[in-house]
Amino acid sequence: MMAAETKKVWMDGKLVEAADAKISVLGHSLHYGVGVFEGIRCYNTRTGPAIFRLKEHVARLVWSARLYKMPLPYSSEEIVRAIEETQSANGIIPSYIRPIIYRGEPALGVKNQKGKVSLAVAAIPAKKYLGEKSETGVRAKISPFRKIHSAAVPSFAKADGNYTNSYLAGIDAAEDGYEEAILLDANGYVAEGTGENIFLVRNGKLYTPGLESDILLGITRASVIQIAQDLGFPVVEKLLSVNELLTAEEAFFSGTYAEVAPIREISHYTIGDGKPGPMTRDIMDVFYKVVKGEEPKYMHWLHPVPELARAVTPRPSRR
């Protein structure tokens, strides 16, 4: 169900009323999870609404679609304009913007590639994904469900079906009273949260799992790494064991919806003194200044939202 504030949804070249944004119950993506999407935030800055790292999100959306053999009838520039239109039409600040590429026409059969490839964009009010505790520290559980290996499905793609894995881990953690779950990779090393990357601090260095742990290449993750390096903190990408995680001095999640969220407890083990540590606080401080347009050095990460743009007409698909 759409949030009450959502008035318009962009669907294949035009804005429609949110209540009219519908697809068939026999759509291929609904039945098989073959679709790709992005989560993008728009913030209120000193100079007006701005979308955080829009071009990077659109680039990932495009190559996610390519990995899943979904020929796009839109260029990257046209997708950017569609997102601008959606944000302008709804006027929600701060917002969480969800572009999704899918096959929504009736077309059953696992290997189906004949259905129309569509693009839709919606915007909803942005909230604290991990709740109000995300500012002071959340409790996380190491999940019994392992992160899907990239040999099974490509972790680089932000694909609909990948998140059944996150769903199971997240529900399991919530039923045990935790705010979030931490998934290990197929070899038992730390991978990520259900919708976030993870960082930990040990001996003055910032550590995060690398690509060998089948993580999503998080755009907020890349931003945190850049901010940390600019602050003079050494950043190491490596395989991380559960022992290293549980004995970390600090730990936090990063993600578009979660932003930067300290972790105070993991599976009943207190991290550090149970409060956001100094490195975490420094990174959080810069990050929240960046998204508000208060750090000139990072202004190129913010995409100003123009006035309502002209509707984008889809080009014929190149098959």
Protein topology:
Elements lengths: L7 E4 L2 E4 L10 H5 L3 E2 L2 E6 L2 E5 L1 H14 L8 H15 L4 E9 L13 E9 L12 E5 L20 H13 L4 E5 L5 E4 L3 E6 L2 E4 L10 H12 L4 E3 L4 H5 L3 E6 L3 E8 L2 E2 L7 H14 L10 E3 L15
Parallel strand pairs: 8-9, 8-15, 12-13
Antiparallel strand pairs: 1-2, 1-7, 3-6, 4-5, 4-6, 5-17, 6-7, 9-10, 11-12, 11-14, 14-15, 15-16
Helix pairs in contact: 5-7
Q: Can you characterise this structure?
A:
This protein folds into two domains: about 120 residues, Aminotransferase class 4, branched-chain amino acid transferase, N-terminal domain (D-amino Acid Aminotransferase, Chain A, domain 1, 2-Layer Sandwich), CATH 3.30.470.10; about 160 residues, D-amino Acid Aminotransferase, Chain A, domain 2 (Alpha-Beta Barrel). A hairpin with a 3-residue loop joins strand 14 and strand 15. It starts with 7 loop residues before the first strand and ends in a 15-residue tail after the last strand. The model has no long low-confidence stretch (mean pLDDT about 95). The strands form two sheets. Strands 8, 9, 10, 11, 12, 13, 14, 15 and 16 form a nine-stranded mixed beta sheet that branches. Strands 1, 2, 3, 4, 5, 6, 7 and 17 form an eight-stranded antiparallel beta sheet that branches. It is an alpha+beta fold and about 325 residues long. Helix 5 crosses helix 7.
